[in-house]
Write a structure and sequence with these properties.
single chain, 270 residues, mainly alpha, two-stranded antiparallel ribbon, 11 helices, 2 strands, voltage-gated potassium channel activity, potassium, Ion transporter, potassium transport, ion transport
Length: 270
């Protein structure tokens, strides 16, 4: 009886499983609740709205946390329906450290933390903004967000190399600009860490204009770094774009290989 109930709950709360009409309604309810939560967090930062509707915001937050907490606990309970988490309690512990389970935890943690720790108003205000983590819960219900995650996981090696190249360029350009401009502008380029802000702005081709070189060598160096910055920005963009193309091709190939049984209507691979 308990096993049957657990399996039904598992099908209900997992969007990839066949939970029927009730499952689709549950998914739509959670998605709507997440969207309304993000809207509430944004609107509550407007002082006049927060003061006028504080009780409504607090009641909605309490209602949302109760729903999200129940959902989180149910997911921990039914996770053993999946073969990889069947070794209880280690299976449940493994599930609790999966990315989506951690996101579910972060979605409710800001509400409970003030009951266990004492903090000033600035910390409490920051904790309230942590409720924005709830937007990541949409990844469970949106195929596009799952594709983004798959691309970053698949291309993590190449992106790691790009990160190393960018870090090297950042340190090198900051050091050279410090040597070129320190004597001419000691208050602006006072150290290598101070020059890093200029390097970040230049390499990303933003160019705020608050810091700039005045020596001939510094200007030449800035021009070279700015040109290199175009390529630096293009590298991760190209890698991610190729990842999306590959992901789409794999999905198309998988769809083409599917066949539907004329008797039961289930998809299967030959």
């Amino acid at each position: 009886m308990t096993s049957s109930l657990k399996h039904r709950v598992y099908q209900l709360i997992n969007p990839s499983e066949k939970g029927g009409r009730l499952g689709r309604l549950f998914d739509m309810f959670i998605i709507l609740l997440i969207v309304l939560n993000i809207l509430a967090v944004i609107l509550s930062t407007m002082e006049h709205l927060h003061l006028r509707y504080k009780q409504a915001f607090d009641l909605f937050e309490l209602f949302s946390v109760l729903i999200f907490t129940a959902e989180y606990l149910l997911r921990i309970w039914v996770c053993t329906c999946e073969e990889r988490y069947q070794r209880s309690p280690l299976g449940r512990l493994r599930f609790m450290f999966t990315p989506m389970a951690l996101i579910d935890l972060l979605a409710i943690l800001p509400f409970y933390l003030p009951f266990f720790i004492t903090a000033d108003m600035r910390v409490l205000r920051a904790l309230r903004l942590f409720r924005l983590f709830r937007v990541f819960k949409l990844a469970r219900y949106t195929e596009s967000l799952r594709h983004i995650r798959a691309v970053f996981v698949d291309k993590r090696g190449e992106l790691g190399v790009v990160l190393m190249v960018v870090s090297t360029m950042l340190i090198l350009s900051s050091s050279l600009m410090y040597l070129a401009e320190n004597e001419a502008q000691p208050e602006v380029f006072s150290s290598i860490p101070a020059a890093m802000w200029w390097s970040v702005v230049t390499l990303t081709t933003v160019g705020y204009g608050d810091l700039y070189p005045i020596t001939p060598f510094g200007k030449l160096l800035a021009a070279i770094i700015a040109l290199l910055g175009v390529g630096i920005v293009a590298l991760p963009a190209g890698i991610i774009a190729s990842g999306f193309i590959r992901e789409d091709m794999e999905e198309s190939n998988a769809e083409n290989k599917k066949h539907t049984c004329p008797h039961c209507g289930q998809d299967f691979k030959p």
